[in-house]
User: Fold this.
Amino acid sequence: MASVPVALEGQPYDVIVGAGVRSEAHALTDARDQVAVLADRRVQALHGPLIEGASTLEVDGGEPLKSMDGLAEALDFCAAAGLSRGSLLIAYGGGTVGDLGGLAASLFKRGIDVLQVPTTLLAQVDASVGGKTAINLRSGKNLAGTFHQPARVLCDTSLLGTLSDAEFASGLGEVIKTSIIGGEDMVSLTEGLMASLIERDPSALATVIEACVRVKARVVVSDPEERGPRRALNLGHTFAHAIESAAGYGAVPHGVAVGVGLALAARAAESTCGASGALTERTTLLLERAGLPPSLQVLRGAYGLEEQLTPAALRAGLAHDKKGSVGAPEFVLARGVGDVIMGQHLDEDLLAQLLA
Assistant:
């Protein structure tokens, strides 16, 4: 078991990584007047309830959950469970459950504590850490949300064995992103352990998840509300969110879209900021080894989305990028491993080439 501190001023918390650490949830419930659990229905069926006897709302994980209707249901559940400002809401599921649970906790009675117990690789390495919460709107992904830091995060690696191959590969997309941001040691670690990760070796999983969390914690502490340096964590995401929007939320898993976004961002960096082709080749190889599409063309074919992922539809999705000004998306690009630059604009000719 490893403990990674997220040393935010005034609201520090720990991310605990290891097999069986979900049992640590009980330690946070003793002093609470009420505890309620927002749980992924499939996770609950596979692994049992997190807190016996706690009020529980079972939901179906996935992007459709992150909607106004989903948020209303979660808030009504908090009220029905009798939660107060001294209560605890637990999000027990993948990234979409964590996003919805965190947002509901931030809004209910103007803010109650949330414990994140992420159950997918993607959520353990990325979504559960840092306090970003959101739901989707028809016009774009994660456009309605808040920053609400968790009381603690419990990354139980023993939960990952029941993930489908597709869900697991999606998490590897975020692992690759974090590795590029983290620097040479992190990329080399991921490259060296990729075969073991695919085999879901417990030691390799714990090592890489902890390393990813340490990278993210360092960035989050430097910029809790994404005003500056934290935007580096959006590497590949401007393209990814456009892919998800054009395809229809849930049609392409988030980490798969991120992987293609990383490949597109690498090509963009070659054209605009002097990145070498070596980073593009390294990124492509990592994606291929992880079983992820390394290009838009491969993604379209693999998911049968030729009619949805048209250049025009992707360009329309980019227009709703929440990081840029209206109609002018901003991109996070890597000039090299560990060398990330933000606020980049791409000209229309280059975008046309990338989105073809």
In short: The mean pLDDT is 95. The radius of gyration is 19 Å. Residues 202-222 form the longest helix (21 residues).
